[in-house]
């Protein structure tokens, strides 16, 4: 234990396809209610802290669990598709929810419903919004990218090679007018029929090994390009599923005829402890 006079807090560490998070149980909001950007950055620091792409504060609000999500730089986002699946795994392991039933979890993008099936957890990310195109660029390369809103903003660029995105240390250039609050940028290649692979630069976290809402946005952009929409431009006439490979594993994204995006993949908690960070 650190030799510190400061208070100590329980934490957990988990990931979904290696998109990793520090979880902070704070059921009544009394422990971390003042969670500052500085503390989030300290917790997510991979050398001086616990390390993570983001923080999930676990709060009970009225009759609902609420995921208070923060990016590694301390900024707030509306939603996190992998984070909410890890959040559900934590609730199940602590006996706080019944895994045989749909699990509702509140987010800044409304209530999402999770289903647990053994190692796999599916998050209903809700309805996608397919918008226009604008340019994204990294040093030496520029592409037209599709704007897909998954509750949070995404720009999806189809590229010849995932290597063309470079080291992704810096945020790709993007259209500030289209994305006034920043954007998550996905780079995609085709791997086969209804099978793609992606890399991502996440707003507020840098390059991550996976992004659940990003996988959803990529699937939507690919399905639109593949002509999977119904003839009136609405959702697919029947459910369509894509395999989305990410550096940290594989996700399955289904666009239902009811216009819902379902994100399925593994989600695990790998450590529990206390910290004075
Ligand atoms: N990793 C997440 C997305 C986290 C939020 C994102 N960086 C943003 O700022 O919108 C996911 O799995 O969806």
Please tell me the total number of domains: 2
N-to-C CA distance: 12 Å
Q: What's the architecture of the largest domain, going by CATH?
A: Roll
Based on secondary structure, the structural category is: mainly beta
| Overall form | globular
Sequence of secondary-structure elements:
EEHEEHEEEEEEEEEHEEEE
Q: How many β-strands, per DSSP?
A: 17
- CATH homologous superfamily designation of the largest domain: Diaminopimelate Epimerase, Chain A, domain 1
CATH class of the largest domain: Alpha Beta
Radius of gyration: 18 Å
Function: Catalyzes the stereoinversion of LL-2,6-diaminopimelate (L,L-DAP) to meso-diaminopimelate (meso-DAP), a precursor of L-lysine and an essential component of the bacterial peptidoglycan.
Protein name: Diaminopimelate epimerase
EC number: 5.1.1.7
Catalytic activity: (2S,6S)-2,6-diaminopimelate = meso-2,6-diaminopimelate
């Amino acid at each position: 234990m650190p030799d510190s006079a400061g208070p100590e807090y329980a934490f957990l560490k988990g990931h979904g396809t290696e998109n990793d998070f520090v979880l902070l149980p704070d059921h009544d909001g009394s422990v971390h209610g003042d969670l500052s950007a500085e503390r989030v950055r300290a917790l997510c620091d991979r050398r001086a802290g616990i390390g993570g792409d983001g923080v999930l504060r676990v709060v009970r609000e009225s009759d609902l669990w609420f995921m208070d999500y923060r990016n590694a730089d301390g900024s707030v986002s509306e939603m996190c598709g992998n984070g909410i699946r890890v959040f559900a795994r934590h609730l199940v392991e602590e006996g706080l929810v019944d895994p045989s039933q749909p699990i509702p979890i509140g987010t800044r993008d409304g209530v999402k419903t999770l289903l647990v099936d053994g190692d796999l957890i599916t998050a209903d990310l809700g309805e996608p919004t397919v918008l226009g195109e604008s340019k994204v660029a990294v040093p030496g390369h520029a592409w037209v990218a599709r704007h897909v809103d998954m509750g949070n903003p995404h720009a999806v660029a189809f590229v010849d090679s995932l290597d063309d995105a470079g080291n992704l240390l810096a945020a790709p250039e993007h259209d500030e007018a289209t994305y006034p609050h920043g954007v998550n940028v996905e780079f995609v290649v085709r791997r086969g029929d209804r099978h793609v692979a992606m890399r991502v630069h996440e707003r507020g976290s840098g390059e991550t090994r996976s992004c659940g809402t990003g996988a959803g946005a990529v699937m939507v952009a690919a399905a639109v390009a593949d002509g999977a929409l119904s003839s009136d431009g609405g959702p697919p006439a029947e459910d369509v599923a894509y395999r989305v490979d990410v550096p940290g594993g594989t996700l399955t994204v289904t666009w239902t005829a009811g216009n819902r995006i379902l994100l399925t993949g593994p989600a695990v908690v790998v450590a529990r402890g206390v910290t004075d960070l």
